[in-house]
Write a structure and sequence with these properties.
Layout lengths: L3 E9 L2 E8 L4 H25 L10 H31 L10 H39 L8 H28 L9 H26 L15 H8 L1 H22 L3 H4 L2 H5 L1
Antiparallel strand pairs: 1-2
Helix pairs in contact: 1-3, 2-4, 3-4, 3-7, 4-5, 5-6, 5-7
């Protein structure tokens, strides 16, 4: 989709020039991130399939430290350090006058938001569908020993922290790059960010309970009930999408008002023909 619209006239050396802007959907970025997501999660799933039952059954074996704990240290360090760098950078590099951007530029930002959310939905589906199921299946056929298992290192210390960090970074970006949220906080998005925070105490309780008094790895177990808060947090994404669509409608009307009538921009000779 590409729509050319003239921006406001700019004067330079008493000459009037027109800046042409276009509406662009970030297809290249979306497909690049999608392929990267599939490769990363696919490789991780292959790694689990091949090593979870050969060098991942006992936390106290030297092989477990080599194949799994080193992976744990690397991925947790990368996620934490990246978040601590990217989030403050987005905040300190925010535009001084965010309301100075044109409707076309703002629309492009919303296209970027929708594109990234589309890719994120794939990662979320893989994480909650494939990795959660793999964790439950692994524990049902093996003996639980510690909080560090191959499926935990993939789910609780990679997939979910990566999702949580991405949501936190997105929260900062939205409130510093979109004028509609520059002077207010998006409540639905705040709930989405709060979901992971609320789930952390239940995660600790879940691991403690499984270790000491509740060996069954059933989804309906009472110590799993608190995980519902995580799902409720993700449901709030729908409210954020509605907020974005309401603003997109306003911006779309503005861009159509700025676009000159087509018959007036054509030469009289073409109109006569």
């Amino acid at each position: 989709m590409s729509v050319a619209l003239p921006n406001k006239a700019l004067t330079e050396d008493n000459a009037v020039t027109a800046e042409i802007e276009t509406l662009k959907i970030p297809w290249l970025l979306m497909f690049t991130l999608l392929i990267g997501t599939l490769l990363i999660f696919g490789t991780y799933r292959w790694y689990q399939q091949n090593y979870s039952f050969t060098v991942g059954l006992d936390y106290f074996e030297p092989e477990f430290q080599t194949y799994w704990m080193n992976l744990f240290y690397v991925q947790m360090a990368l996620i934490i350090i990246s978040t601590l760098i990217i989030a403050p950078t987005l905040w300190f590099t925010r535009p001084k006058d965010i309301h100075a951007i044109t409707p076309i530029q703002e629309l492009n930002n919303y296209y970027l938001v929708f594109g990234l959310m589309s890719v994120a939905s794939v990662g979320l589906l893989i994480s909650l569908g494939l990795f959660v199921e793999a964790d439950a299946a692994w524990h049902q056929i093996t003996i639980r020993d510690t909080d560090f298992t191959p499926t935990h290192i993939a789910l609780f210390y990679f997939a979910l922290p990566l999702i949580f960090a991405s949501i936190a970074i997105a929260f900062v970006w939205v409130h510093t790059r979109l004028p509609d949220f520059s002077q207010r906080v998006s409540l639905p998005m705040a709930i989405t960010v709060g979901g992971p925070i609320l789930i952390m105490p239940n995660l600790a309780f879940n691991e403690w309970g499984h270790t000491f008094f509740y060996a069954e790895e059933l989804f309906a177990a009472p110590i799993h009930w608190g995980f519902v808060a995580l799902a409720w947090g993700f449901f709030a994404v729908g409210g954020f999408i509605l907020q974005c669509l309401a603003r997109v409608k306003v911006l779309t009307n503005l861009t159509h008002q700025e676009q000159p009538p087509k018959d007036q921009s054509e030469p009289l000779s073409n109109q006569a023909a």
